[in-house]
Amino acid sequence: MGLDVRVPLGVMFAIMGALLAGYGIAGDQSIYTRSLGINVNAIWGGVMIGFAAVLLVLASRHARAARGGGRG
Amino acid sequence: MTLTWLDWLLMLVYFVFVLGVGLALKKRTTTSAAFLQAGRAIPAWVCGLAFISANLGAQEIIGMAASGAKYGISTSHFYWIGAIPAMVFLGIFMMPFYYGSRARSVPEYLRLRFDEKTRAFNAFSFALMTVFSSGISMYAMAKLLQILHIFDRPFAALGLPPEYIFHVCIVSSALVVLAYVLLGGLSSAIYNEVLQFFLIVAGFLPLVYLGLRDAGGWAGIVATVPPSLTHAWRGFGSASTSPMGVEAFGLTMGLGFVLSFGYWCTDFLVVQRAMAADSMAAARRTPLIAAFPKMLFPFLVVLPGLIALSAHPIDQGQVGQVGQAGQVARAGGVAAGVIPYKVDATTNQIVLDGNGRPQRDYDLTVPTLLLRYFPTGMLGLGLTALLASFMSGMAGNVTAFNTVWTYDIYQAYLRPKASDAHYLWIGRMATVFGIAASVVTAYVAAQFNNIMDVLQLVFAFVNAPLLATFLLGMFWKRTTGHGAFSGLVAGTLAAALHHGLTLPVGALTGVKGGWLGQVASYPSEMAQNFWTAIDAWTVCFIVTIVVSLMTRPRDEGELAGLVYSLTDKPRDAALPWHRRPVVLGIIVLAATAALNLVFF
Question: Among B165, B410, B466, B583, which residue has the least CB neighbours within 10 Å?
């Protein structure tokens, strides 16, 4: 198919997750009253980074398998 | 309201990746097949997510939450009855014809099965419908961004009047979609739809969690809102007690059969995603893979409507942040959760219904919740998810339009024997034209209130009769081209006639119906739409059969691969169980039935 969509998806989620998590950890903590006291930026940013990691690992394995198949 | 640098940065990241995907695919898009059909080289799971994402436009995110607040959990019928069975039917029974016939589009299948005039009728009506749908998406986004007032400060800094926000939003969204579709064609649209799918889930899942937690879970919502809103089937015994104004038969036949199967099984916008798959097996799995997340989408897009009814403003100023609508709503009191009243943009007065009661602006349900629960950061992600949904809806329509225009109108009737490079160029020009036409129709769409009702009306006119044509064409070999064409014309006219002679209670004569004189009224616009669809389908079905019996059928040898009884059935026995369409179909239907029981 040429482009493995997991790569741009994973990188995009990693960047967005890092921005959210970074702001959640280092930014103003008083803004979370509206989110019921939950630091939703830090938590959801972390979840997005984790999801991105899974996608990139899967894409990497797929690429290795494809290269192996190509040599075989 | 004011967004911070973080919110803007998150939106920027999204735009960079959307355009980057288009750029990455540009060098592979060198033929008309690559541009318009994605080279038929995309894996099933990608096609499956694109399949639902192309449908997940503004009308879904905004319209479903709006309907969730108006009609409650019974709005889930648009998924559990109005999508899943049709998607299963498409995957198991219809994809073998679409994919196996090697037709490049749905209208082209109609030419192979019937004749040129049937293809032409479908191609032109479909082209109009895609432009209209795309225009609605654009309008919804521009209206929303205008009401949210997030561009007020930048516009004021540039010395531009605030009414320009609407126009700039329409033009800029059109340019972004135009750029990535022009660069990578259908592949670019499909890959971006996968990005958009995950972004929409990422943006709205935390919103539902926070809203539910604040409401005290599902039990808290049940305790707050009227019981009719928390039961999927309560009151559907008759139209007078049903929250949608339609009884179970009208719902099942109108939405569950005619509109649902008419859309999911014959609309090239979604079928095109499955036809881009890399094999017949992948094409058949595409709608079935899509059905699993689709089945759960009510929790993402309908539930926010109920949450908004149960939520309390965080402070007196919270709703006011939505803008003028919110400020007036605050002055008038917020009785139903955080959903603001509808305000006339010119007079700044609350809009009243036919009974003199103030109307709520249900289309503001989702943005109001975003403001209620999301701090800066997540607010940017939520708004980016909204933008993603608008763009996926627009791109879905535009890529379907450019294919039908190029193959089924231009190549078929204007210039049949040009080079492939010429058709590639025409496909790109059709993209430009389709988006320009969408911009025009966005302003037409501005006259309507509930976006979902409008779309159902359009589908009733175009898709409802088409379903009868396809069912007869695929499963009755005696159906003729003359029969199909006559049925389609009669069915569409029947839809127009029904709409012109009926009117929902409280609506004004005109675009809502009654323009030929009112002989009947319906409790709701939705009921009118469902019955318009049922009438159109029935007329098309009967006229097609009658005319087919009066005209000469085609030789059976010409219909191999196009009609069920004359086509080799796909053999799935060699596939592992989790790849067999029938097994996947049974699982998703059983799970959907279980959801209906849980929320009965």
Answer: B583
Q: Are B269 and B54 in contact (CB under 8 A)?
A: yes
Taking CA atoms, what residue in A is nearest to B42?
A1
Contact at CB, B375 and A36, closer than 8 angstroms: no
Residue B453 inside a domain? The answer is no
CATH of the domain at B53: 1.20.1730.10
- Band (B208; pLDDT cuts 50, 70, 90): very high
SS (H, E, C) B356-416: CCECECHHHHHHHHHHHHCCCCHHHHHHHHHHHHHHHHHHHHHHHHHHHHHHHHHHHHHCC
A14's CB contacts (< 8 A; 6+ apart) are A48, A49, A52, A53, A56
Predicted TM-score of the model (pTM): 0.87
Say if the Cβ atoms of A35 and B195 lie within 8 Å: no
Verify that B480 and B427 share a domain, yes or no. no
| B242 and B275 co-located in one domain | yes
What is the domain count for chain B?
2
Please name the helix (run of DSSP H) or strand (run of DSSP E) that holds residue B502, with its range, or none: strand B502-504
Q: Check whether residue B437 and residue B500 sit in a common domain.
A: no
Instruction: Clarify whether residues B185 and B219 are in a common domain.
Output: yes
Give the pairing of strands B520-522 and B502-504.
parallel
- Per-chain mean pLDDT for chain B: 85
Task: Give residue B423's domain range.
Answer: 5-446+578-598
B415 and B522 both lie in a single domain: no
Same domain assignment for residues B279 and B359: yes
Q: Answer yes or no: do B17 and A12 touch at CB < 8 A.
A: yes
HSE-CB at B452 with a 13 A cutoff on CA atoms is 26
Question: Could you tell me if A21 lies within 8 Å of chain B, comparing CB atoms?
Answer: no
Long-range contacts formed by B428-432: CB under 8 A, 24+ apart: B428/B35, B428/B182, B428/B402, B430/B401, B430/B402, B430/B405, B430/B406, B431/B178, B431/B181, B431/B182, B431/B398, B431/B399, B431/B401, B431/B402, B432/B178, B432/B182
At B499, list the tokens.
């709409």
Nearest CA distance, A72 vs chain B (angstrom): 22
What are φ and ψ of residue B580, in 5° steps? -85, 125
The stretch A31-53 carries a mean pLDDT of: 95
Which residue do the tokens 């879905």 mark?
A: B396
How close A21 comes to chain B (CA, Å)?
9
Q: Which residues pair with B360 in a beta bridge?
A: B341
Q: Based on the fold, state whether residues B92 and B223 are members of the same structural domain.
A: yes
Q: Mind listing the pLDDT tens digit for each residue in B122-160?
A: 898 888 888 888 887 788 788 778 777 777 887 888 888
Report CA dihedral (B461, B464, B465, B466) to the nearest 10 degrees.
110
Under an 8 A CB cutoff, do B375 and A32 touch? yes
Residue that the structure tokens 């997991």 belong to:
A6
Q: Let me know if residue B451 belongs to a domain.
A: no
B14 and B156 fall within a common domain? yes
B78 - beta bridge partners?
Answer: none
